[in-house]
Structures are given as structure tokens and as C-alpha cells.
Design goal:
Number of strands: 13
Number of helices: 30
Low-confidence stretches: none
Mean pLDDT: 90
Largest sheet: 5 strands, mixed
Radius of gyration: 31 Å
Shape: elongated
Oligomer: single chain
Helix content: 40-55%
Strand content: 5-15%
Strand order of the largest sheet: 1-11-3-6-2
Amino acid sequence: MSQNYHVNNSTVNALLSWIEQDIVAIPEIQRPFVWKASKVRDLLDSLYKDYPIGYIITWQNPDARLKDGTISHGKKILIDGQQRVTALMAAIAGKNVINNKYQKKRIIISFNPIDEVFEVQNNAILNNKKWIPDISTVFSGQFSTFQFINSYCEANPEMDPEKLHSTLQKLQQIKHSSIGIIELNHTLDIETVTEIFIRINSAGVSLSQADFAMSKISVNDHYNGPIIRKTIDYFSHLMKNPAVFDNIKENDDEFTESQHFQKIKWVKDYNTNIYEPSYSDVLRVAFTFKFLRGRISNLVSLLSGRDFDTREYKEEIIESSFISLNDGVLKFVDETNFKRFIMILKSAGIIHAKLVRSQNALNFAYALFLLLRERELNQSEINKIVRKWLVASILTGRYSGSPESMFEFDIKRFANAEDPNEYVKNMEAGELSDAYWNNTLIDSLDTSVRSSPYFNLFLMAQIYHGDNAFLSKSIRVQQLIEERGDVHHVFPKRYLQKNGYNRRGQYNQIANYVYTEQAINLAIRDQAPNKYMARVKTQLSEGKIEIGEMTTVEELKENLKMNCVPDAIFQMNSEDYLSFLQERRKMIANKIRRFYEAL
């Protein structure tokens, strides 16, 4: 029985030379160098004291069979140890690292031979003759031990030349320090290697299958992997922070000269708070849309050349997989595609990211949009299908939890459906029957969680219909959400507390919420609904506005209707609170249903 891994010993020097010779590839995954400089200092100190620094874990690609029948042996991927290896390259070889703003930066470690201590370089060290300001000079081929000892002892007469010589030898011995290499067997299946990758990193920065896929992409120079990886990475970072554009342009000449850079540079002038995809979102959408699959582990298998039928690894599968992935990524980041998708979201009442808590629902909606675009459906049909499917998936929690199997199930059926509208109708018949609208949805509205998707769907419905805020005729719900307006309790919280409803889950029911202007909220204070609504009614006849903006009975009735507030609110006090909640849940559910059917 073959082992899953082999353990060997090497040296720091040998490992760094393998990196330089491209034998072992440090995958340019989404995370820039994340260690603090002090951690690099501590790593050097451990090596100097001959302490172990843990194992480096590598894995070679599965053997891919070429068209001529020969076997392709790929690079070894650094599965674990990237931060340590990068730290060593920075401190010993003097290489730059890329920080989280995509700026090239030196991490310079200094050494005091007298006290035998390491420190991160600072101005005080640069002005202190006892320190070697940059230890990388000691490891360079041009370093002369004899000349250094003479000049150092001249500046520091208290230092014994022989002791300094011994200390320098000990410092240089760091390059020959032993380091353990765990080599994963190249015959291991992708799923096992992915699981190992995730487990060994679980104690550090949280990693996922998407991280492993990004690693797999970035080490394949032959099929443009680094460019694809950077396109995904830079696009997602630009979405969140357009300011990194100048750093990317300044520090990555190779990428900025590529066509891929031209495809994403529009993002620096674009701002949306509706859909800000992470690198894993870009990867998942591109993969689902182009490969009609949901499991990211399958992407790693395909990029390795796996034939799922024969279980062999073939070079032609690697090539076709990289071509498809590249096309999917470029379709994702395309300016026209992305902006049209955002317009669809807005047309469904989604004007802010907080209205959709399920990133999975947004991701599938974009994958569906790209698929339907590729099928060359009429744009109005695409808009309708994507809107309905997105809202339906939020309503039913279709992609909550682990979405991969459902992603694959749905995308394949949309791809194979002669008329994608028919698949939507089939879903509606099974998932959105009258029983759902009249029972399930109403029961789901019985919650105090303000971020509930069902309350957000009610707000989306209000935005879609252009509803005014509670007791207002000039301010719409959309404007209050955009400006972070107040959510008001129809039965004021303090009023309910004074009348025995003391638990948060009682007075904070989402069926007790409406959006309203702050001035209206303050005017109502802690009065019973029958009290403050009586004042509203009185002002209609007297013409003196105290609460809200209503001036006619018709305006008031219409406002209550659009905010799903029962007409009986004029007579309600604390004794009617529970019946009010029941009635309003039904009204909200009906409004959401009308909203969905109108999409």
C-alpha cells in the first residue's frame, strides 16, 4: 500500500534555490503577504537558535498524459509554508513582498552581533553602529567576512574579532538550517489534497477550496494561469477599494500590459454597494456558468486534467479547462455584463447589499445571467428570468448552507431547458404554491430578526412599487434606506414595554416595523396607535400638520395600504397587538406575492 506522503529533510538554502529555479511554485493566491514584520524577525531568531520552524508541505500535479502518450510532470505546489518561505526570501534574499494594498515592500531584518538579537529595521538601528542594518547583505555573494570584521570592530572596539567571526558564521548557518519537507504523493486524488490543504491551514488564516483552486490556477504558466488568477484577484479588490488601482499599475508591469488588465480597469471609476464579489465569488460564478458544475473541487480536478470517466489525467483536459475558465472570468468582469446585472438587481428593488444577505443567491443569479446571455436569449427575457429566480431563491432559502449541489442541479437544467421560462414555472409549481404564500411565508414572518430575508423582501417590494414611507407623501422608502433612515415600530417599543411586552422577541417583531422619517418617529414617541392615529385623523380636518404629511383621507388610506398597516389601526391599543401582528403578516405576505408575480 502506497503512502499518502513522504517526509524528507532539506535546508533553507536548498528550498530557496528550488523557488528561484521554479521547481517549487509559491502559488500567488488571493492573500498578499500577511505576516507582520515582527513575525519575520521571530522566524529568523528561531533559525539562529536552531529551533524547528515546522514542515513545508508540497504536492506535485497528478501525472497528465500528453497526446503523444508521454507523461507530463508538473511543478510542485507549495501547499503549506508560503508565508514562512516568503519571509525567508524577504529577509535572507532581500526580495520584495506584496502587501494588502498591492504595494511592493521590503521587510528588512537587522542583527546586533554583540547582543545576538534580531530586530525589524528602524531609524534608531540605522543610526546605531552596533547593528547590521540588513542581514540580507551577510548572505549575498559579495559579502566579505574579513572586510566586515575589520570595519565593524573599528566602529565597535569593544567587540572581539574572533567572537564576531564566530557569530557571523552562526548567522550564515541559517541558510544551512534543516527544514522538513512533506511531499504529498502525486497519486492522491484532488479531493484528498484539497481536504489536506484546508485542514492544515485551519489554525491560521481561514482557507477554502477556492483558495486551493486559486493556487492551482496560478502555478500553470503554460496556460496563462497567473494572468487569470490576477484578473480574479485584482477585480475583486478593485470592487472594494478602487484606490489599489495605482498600486497594481505601478507594481505589476506584466499584468498592466495584458488585455486582461484592459478588461478590468473600468472598475476603478465604478462604485456599487449592491454586489461586491470576492475572489471566491468570481471563481464560483465563472466555474458554474462555464462548466455547468457546482463543486469547486471539480474545478481543481479539471485544471489538473482529470477525465471523470476514465479517471486518467490528460493534457488536453487541462488545456480546455483553462480556456473555458479564462473565458468565464472575462465574461464575469466584462463591464457591460456586470453593469447590466446590477441594473437587473436594481429593477428588483435591490438598491443596497444589506437587502440580500445570501451572497450565494446573488452568485447564482449572475451565473444564470451569463448563461442566458451566452444562449443569446432576448434581453427582456433574461431580465425577467433572473429577477424571478433571484427573488424565488431568497424566498425559499434555495442556496442557504452549502450550495454546491443545488448550483449544479439548477445550472444544468437551465442550460438544457429548451425554454428556461418553463424551468422557472416548474420551480414555482413545486416551491411557491398557494400553501407557501398562505401559510409558510406567513409563518416565516413570525420573527424578531430584523435582518430576516422576509422583511428585506417586503422592503424590496416597497422599493419596486415606489412606496412612500409610513405617514409620508414626499419621502419614499427607497430614499430612507439609501440615507439610513429610521425603522419605526408601529406599536412603539416603549409603549409595549409599559404594557407588559418586555421581551425583545415580542416588541421587535418584524411585522411591527415600518420605515418612516425621523421627525414622524419623534412625534409619535411612545403613544398607543389609536392615540397617535387619532391625531393624524384630526389634522386632516383641521389642516394643522403635526405627524407626517397626510392632508386627505384618500392619501392616508393609500399610505396605510402601501405600508401594509391594517385599517383597524385607528382603534388599536396594547390589547390588540397580537392580532395586529397576525393581520399584518398576511398583508406583508400578500404584498411580497404581488411583487414576485409582477417581476
